[in-house]
Amino acid sequence: MKVNEALADALAQEAEGPIFGLMGDANMPVWGALCKDERVRMVWSRHDGAAVLMADGFAQATGRLAVATVTCGPGLANAANAILTASRASTPMVIFTGEYVADGGKSNLQALDQRRFAAACEAEFRPLARLDALADDIAEGFYTARTRKCPVILNMPQALWEAELKWDWDYRPSRTFVPRTDLPAAGELIESAAQKLRQAQRPVIVAGRGAVFADARAELEQLGDQIGALLATSLVGKGFFDGHPYDVGIAGSFSSATTEGLMAQADLVIAFGASLNFFTTEGGMLFPSAEVIRVDTRAHPAAIGFTPGMHLQGDAKATAAALVRSLQSSATRNEGFRQSATRDALAAPVPQPARAADGLDPRELMRVLSRALPRDTQVVSGAGHFWSWPIAHLALPPGGRFQHTAAFGSIGLGLPHGIGAAAGNPGRKTLVIEGDGSLLQAIQELHAAAEQRIPFVLLVMNDSGYGAEVMKMTWKKRDPRDAQWTSPDYVAIARGFGADGVRIGSEAELAGALERGFASDRPFVIDAPISPTLVSDSYSRLFLGQPNQIPLLRPARQE
């Protein structure tokens, strides 16, 4: 057996879905072996970074480990942004590549110190240079990705790409020895946390991605009922508590005006599977008087800009159930936030700025979407000024999920990320929302998706420029035309790539376009020419000092 065949076998056994990639010299032997393997579905990209982004989108949409492969040197370098984004998002991912050695020959042109590159991208690096330990080294890389929730680069030197393995190959997948994570926190910690919950007067529960994938809604709602808590989510948990009377939506930079006021009164916040990063806590200022408890499967989870007062290592669902049992044993039933004053605050309307007059109103587009999205739709948003509109004004349908690409603050990532999500969840409808400037950085991936018949709808929030930069330049008395352009015909481009689409002229046309798009067996682009001057609420607060006017969203229809 050749080494590349053994490696392909290991990747096939470890993969929990498609393997995403782009072929080059350094991964060509493994790629060829994978394409012959009936256990594997290969999904290819048109750019190396897009392959890693597809894997990231798959992992975030499914909660499963992702596998990608790109070539060495410039191929791996092309993926720097994607790897950093995956690292900041704590995505469990393994990326296989080869490596040229700077030997002065032809291969010197593409040589790169890939260990140092991995460190710069905040990824783990695992060399595959020992044939007698190849299986162990591969499994260790996958084990690291699974347990530390991070990208791991498996790196094989050129000399081994076509080498022979002179003994029998017997690979044991890492998942067979990964510790269980579906267990509650330790009993003494449960009792300590339960005591704090008993004493809390104004508690808040925050659910993040960990709670979503643990399917912990029922347990968290029961816990909230016992302690009188408000129910909030991190951004990636958006919509998790939809329909509950004490759901206050997103906690953090995109909190509604109502939520912001209520959270300031909290005396205890308990977060389940949520990172409590700078944005979820608004730098710790969202609930300045609250004691914080954090529940996470990792022993030492990262929390950028905020340190929890108490950490419980355990599964969100199991730990919430254990807390419920502890509180029930002492007959705890607190009123907490479940008062008439809270109900009045939740019912109070929030004033909205005037309707846009120079293009489609993105708030109205989101309201149309809220009524038109099919059940279980997964919504993937890129990053930029435009992303504030779906975050603040789109109510997800029953069973819907939301994910984004802003972990590293980069634009241009939404399309390949959405392709990975669509490939990972073919039973769900997928809506990708992207800005026109962002789309132009990755539009070639429409061709890859169309050729592979990966269906999704791509809504282009088209303001003919880099909206964030246009506004900042205007406010700083600079010429905004430097960040604007005449938009190309996105529908014609989509059709040229083998996809389809339509340009809409009113907000009301969106529902019909969406229905047509979801009926297609290939990517479908909806070009929506939105107002270039309407400022999102988050930008109004951050740059103009205006009060929060984000409304508290309610789902368009109940389950």
Shape: globular
Count of DSSP helices?
23
**Strand order, largest beta sheet:** 2-1-3-4-6-5
- The fold-level CATH name of the largest domain is Rossmann fold
Strand content: 15-25%
Count every beta strand, where a strand is a DSSP E run of 2 or more residues. Answer: 18
* CATH architecture classification name of the largest domain: 3-Layer(aba) Sandwich
Percent range of helical residues: 25-40%
Distance between the termini: 54 Å
* Class of secondary structure makeup: alpha/beta
The domain count comes to 3
Give a short account of the largest sheet. 6 strands, parallel
- Uncertain runs are none
Overall pLDDT level? 92
CATH class of the largest domain: Alpha Beta
CATH superfamily of the largest domain: Thiamin diphosphate (ThDP)-binding fold, Pyr/PP domains
What oligomeric state do the depicted chains represent? single chain
| Rg over C-alpha atoms, rounded to the nearest angstrom | 24 Å
Write up what this structure looks like.
With 559 residues, the chain is an alpha/beta fold. It folds into three domains: 3-176, Thiamin diphosphate (ThDP)-binding fold, Pyr/PP domains (Rossmann fold), CATH 3.40.50.970; 187-347, Rossmann fold (3-Layer(aba) Sandwich), CATH 3.40.50; 362-544, Rossmann fold (3-Layer(aba) Sandwich), CATH 3.40.50. It is 37% helix and 15% strand. It is built from 23 helices and 18 strands. The strands form three sheets. A six-stranded parallel beta sheet has the order 2-1-3-4-6-5, with helices on both faces. The chain has a six-stranded parallel beta sheet with strand order 9-8-7-10-11-12, sandwiched between helices. Strands 14-13-15-16-18-17 form a six-stranded parallel beta sheet. Helix 22 links the parallel strand 17 (500-503) and strand 18.
